[in-house]
Amino acid sequence: MNGQARQVQIHGGDIYRNRNATDYSVNSNPLGPPDAVLEALHEHAGDIVHYPDICCQELKEAIGRFEGVSSGEIICGNGAAELFFAAVLAVRPKKALLLAPSFAEYARALVASGSDIRYYRLTQSDGYRVKEDILGEITKDIDMMFLCNPNNPTGELTDKPLLFRILDKCRACGVLLVLDECFLDFLPKPHKYEMAGARGTYPNLLLIKAFTKIFCMPGLRLGYGISSDEGLLSRMADAIQPWNVSVLAQACGVAALKDCGEYLEETRDYVENEKKDLIEVLSGKGYPVFGSKANYIFFQAKEGLYEEALKEGFLIRDCGNYEGLAPGYYRIAVRTKEENERMAAWLRRL
């Protein structure tokens, strides 16, 4: 199997080989992109005759206003995935600590650089939650740690007090903590978990976020990192190709963040209301539901459900290929009301 085929297997969103299926495997905003983003696409289409700003300056300033950080503490990437790879290339860790299960691109970046990986294995008996015993896994032979909050695919959250204890232990052991907050803005109260305010105290913290999911623009590829460590950001920039963020991605990123408060609040309310109905159906069928604090639902059901769903025209995420999970675990995204009702009706018939 070639590299591209493997990537199809470890990610959702393969609509190109399942064109007749409704895609519940990707967790993008069900409201679609903000109108301002679509307008920016049209307005800036003619700009493709120019190279993009290699510094992403206007975009960094917009992100800085949104996140409450300075533009000099930001690096922009061709999606969050590029920044995970750039961080690994900047650090060149001999050994790294990962959660299992969690997003596959952390491991791919580490394997590509020749790093050894230690796994902290989340368990069903603990609801796939990170516990304080993770502190014992952070040792001086670890150079780098990846943590996703809320985690993907489980949707479980790590509370701030434990995050601070993790950061303290990482700092004491010389470990860079890469904290993936790509789904954080779907939470009803993201401020309870966001860690950007800790960047000054913890230069060993690198936050990664993306426009992909919350602003529903995965096809444009746009992510960003935040850190108070200028040296780290500089080394990451050296590991990235020039002009990595297109003219259109930069323009749409700026547009997405302008007056986005109402859009984000509408998104959060919608996701919470729609998610409840799907969780009720799954629980009513006796399928255990775990975490699911963001805009997707992680559950256990019978093996073969992925294939059954595809026959019905539903593309769901089979999580059996995640490190730490066996066949019979799945993830579905919250989509439009009509699509959620179709999914719920099918689940009831199982």
UniProtKB/TrEMBL annotation:
<keyword id="KW-0663">Pyridoxal phosphate</keyword>
<dbReference type="InterPro" id="IPR004839">
    <property type="entry name" value="Aminotransferase_I/II_large"/>
</dbReference>
<dbReference type="GO" id="GO:0030170">
    <property type="term" value="F:pyridoxal phosphate binding"/>
</dbReference>
<protein>
    <submittedName>
        <fullName>Threonine-phosphate decarboxylase</fullName>
        <ecNumber>4.1.1.81</ecNumber>
    </submittedName>
</protein>
<dbReference type="InterPro" id="IPR015424">
    <property type="entry name" value="PyrdxlP-dep_Trfase"/>
</dbReference>
<dbReference type="Pfam" id="PF00155">
    <property type="entry name" value="Aminotran_1_2"/>
</dbReference>
<dbReference type="InterPro" id="IPR015422">
    <property type="entry name" value="PyrdxlP-dep_Trfase_small"/>
</dbReference>
<dbReference type="GO" id="GO:0048472">
    <property type="term" value="F:threonine-phosphate decarboxylase activity"/>
</dbReference>
<feature type="domain" description="Aminotransferase class I/classII large">
    <location>
        <begin position="23"/>
        <end position="344"/>
    </location>
</feature>
<dbReference type="InterPro" id="IPR015421">
    <property type="entry name" value="PyrdxlP-dep_Trfase_major"/>
</dbReference>
<keyword id="KW-0456">Lyase</keyword>
